[in-house]
Amino acid sequence: MIKKQEVIPSMIKNQRLVQERRQQIVEGAVRLFIEKGFHKTTTREIARECGLSIGTMYEYIQSKEDVLYLVCHYIHSLLLEKLHSISSHHLTAKEMLASSLTQYFQIMDELRPYVVLIYQETKSLPSEQMKLVLAREEEITLFFEQMLVRGIEDGSFQIPPSSVRLTAHNIVVLGQMWAFRHWALRKMYTLKEYTEKQVSLLMIEIQGVRR
Amino acid sequence: MIKKQEVIPSMIKNQRLVQERRQQIVEGAVRLFIEKGFHKTTTREIARECGLSIGTMYEYIQSKEDVLYLVCHYIHSLLLEKLHSISSHHLTAKEMLASSLTQYFQIMDELRPYVVLIYQETKSLPSEQMKLVLAREEEITLFFEQMLVRGIEDGSFQIPPSSVRLTAHNIVVLGQMWAFRHWALRKMYTLKEYTEKQVSLLMIEIQGVRR
Amino acid sequence: MIKKQEVIPSMIKNQRLVQERRQQIVEGAVRLFIEKGFHKTTTREIARECGLSIGTMYEYIQSKEDVLYLVCHYIHSLLLEKLHSISSHHLTAKEMLASSLTQYFQIMDELRPYVVLIYQETKSLPSEQMKLVLAREEEITLFFEQMLVRGIEDGSFQIPPSSVRLTAHNIVVLGQMWAFRHWALRKMYTLKEYTEKQVSLLMIEIQGVRR
Amino acid sequence: MIKKQEVIPSMIKNQRLVQERRQQIVEGAVRLFIEKGFHKTTTREIARECGLSIGTMYEYIQSKEDVLYLVCHYIHSLLLEKLHSISSHHLTAKEMLASSLTQYFQIMDELRPYVVLIYQETKSLPSEQMKLVLAREEEITLFFEQMLVRGIEDGSFQIPPSSVRLTAHNIVVLGQMWAFRHWALRKMYTLKEYTEKQVSLLMIEIQGVRR
DNA sequence: AATGAATGAGCATTCATTCAT
DNA sequence: CATGAATGAATGCTCATTCAT
């Protein structure tokens, strides 16, 4: 599911090296993109930041947009990895979901600048790569959707089938919201407070009261 | 509330002319920004699109970022105007809110590209202007917050005071979500379905079940 | 016939200025192209040579290839202009042709570097512009073709119709040859000697001996 | 006469290997140069096309210009080889020349893209190598010059000594013209027609009518 | 002898902004 | 007030060549 679908060609043959150098590039670029945005970051800056010469960097990518794609891919990988490592050895489906949500909100807090970056720069990708990134974004939704489906199947949740996906979207968005509205939310709530309130709301939605 | 807080100096004295020309600029720019984004739009294109010469345009702004600020300001004006014109001659606070939410979702649908633009380009503003734009964004939240407060005061809603603002944020975000996740949501829901489900969820939140 | 078919768009509105500046560009570029060839000349060098800033130069052209096109166009204009100003107030068609040939060879000598440039760089043009340049090249052939036709019509020349165009091509090429084989020819012949011999040969061809 | 005048140093000692690899390089490069020109072909492309690594290729050349020189040398070798293999077991000098001319025109047709390449890219050679290439070009002229001299000596041809070399040049150029003016000539003549007309013209020149 | 990763000077081109008219 | 020609620093990207392995 988190398959590394590398669509970007490289001039370099040694695949191990390609992986390694691209990791370097991504790590340098992500810092800069967060700090000043994709458009205001120059390829020269990226090269300097990741310790490669401009020429060498271009042996591993084809265009500046490729760097953005690699960065988005990397962020989604981080996110999906953390998501899938969520511990779920709980007894009831309800408990498991609540715990997952809490952990998800925690992740959103940790990756706050990354989440904002994805939100703001995905649109700068060439359409082909944008599609791939959006597909990965949907994977996150799918993660929660499947969790919900399991709860429905064992009778724990009462969400009508037509609402399952929307509920998953709501979960995802209310989590990301902590990142992209942080400028406002932080003035009133701590992560803990925010998490408690939103999880509580989502649990109501999931238990199907009045739906 | 929708006070035109003009922070942008102009070379031109005649204030009526300044208003008029800036409206021209905004209307041209917004089309282009939606189509190709702020960074990929050139000042020349903006001038051409709004029927001014590049020189004349610069008599009314100081930098390209000013245009972005004017555009953001304009979008928020549109939004706030529509929001404040929401009809509210209903009997109960509950009914009034439900109707407002429905109308708000309708507005989000109409202004979809504008909402997305605000989401993606606000970060390109100089920090001073970004603050002003975010303040206007909070005004939208405030609109719903006040509506909730009225409902609480007359006993219709049971939201703990500490959650009022968050609920307002939730309303705003679940509305904007129809715009910025439209690429995924449109595959499953019509605006009507989306509105019904989300309004229903928000009404539960507001009526304070298990909170 | 020497119609200035300007196909190259410019950012500048004032057409007189466009003409003037392009003339500047062409005059600078032609010197450099002759000296070092099209590919080894940089746009910065062209700008410097013609006294424009690089930015200003690009207001009058769209690409480096455009400069090459303008240069080719200019050279053909020079050539065609000189060709059409060939005096031809002679009595017989035969005399007129001989004189024209002599003057044509004289022109080829004067424009030697230009002729070589056209020969070597036309292929670097985008195909659309190459076609236009080749069409102008054919105009030169046409010039002699028409002269031959007139001589045939009044009975002075005995060239079969199917050979008229080839004869015109031969005239043109034997003239250009003085330019592009000059490195070898100059070792043995002066322009005068070369002209006499080739004109004499061409006159035989035209008088149709054994054809 | 077709002596391989190797002026290009190599890192490799084994001369047989040097010959072999350079042949590989030339065969790859000539295809690319014809297709897209010398300047628009990259060394990487040449290496790929000839099946060598870029590093290996550079063991056998010193610069990209060296490849161009090798290519020019190769083309001249092809040309001179074909030229010298022209069958000449005819009786009279006149017949022999006519046959040679016909076969030469045939060769020019076969090698059309090569001839054009030489015409357009020789100027890109460093002057030292350009001289060598031009010397080989003169060898072609010399081939015909010698044929003419033999005809003069046995009384078959009546060309004044001062015109022999020019006549040889004319032969060479009228042959090459079929290649470099093919874009125009092909519209009116087949190779056969072209050959007949030009050979006929050249035979007049050689038989010295009115000279 | 072969390889291919690394280099960075250099290139064509863009574009926000200015300012003389 | 309006115009649009002029500017040049800055940008993304290329590619011939080298050299450690």
From TrEMBL, chains A, B, C, D:
Keyword DNA-binding: yes
Protein's name according to its UniProt entry: TetR family transcriptional regulator
Record PANTHER family: ACREF/ENVCD OPERON REPRESSOR-RELATED (PTHR43479), ACREF_ENVCD OPERON REPRESSOR-RELATED (PTHR43479:SF11)
Domain HTH tetR-type: 19-79
Gene3D superfamilies: Homeodomain-like, Tetracycline Repressor, domain 2
Protein origin, superkingdom: Bacteria
Keywords: DNA-binding
Cited SUPFAM superfamilies: Homeodomain-like, Tetracyclin repressor-like, C-terminal domain
DNA-binding region, residues: 42-61
Entry keyword DNA-binding: yes
Pfam family name, one: TetR_N
Alphabetical list of InterPro entries matching this protein: Homeodomain-like_sf, HTH-type_Tx_Regulator, HTH_TetR, KstR2_TetR_C, Tet_transcr_reg_TetR-rel_C_sf
MF terms in GO: DNA binding
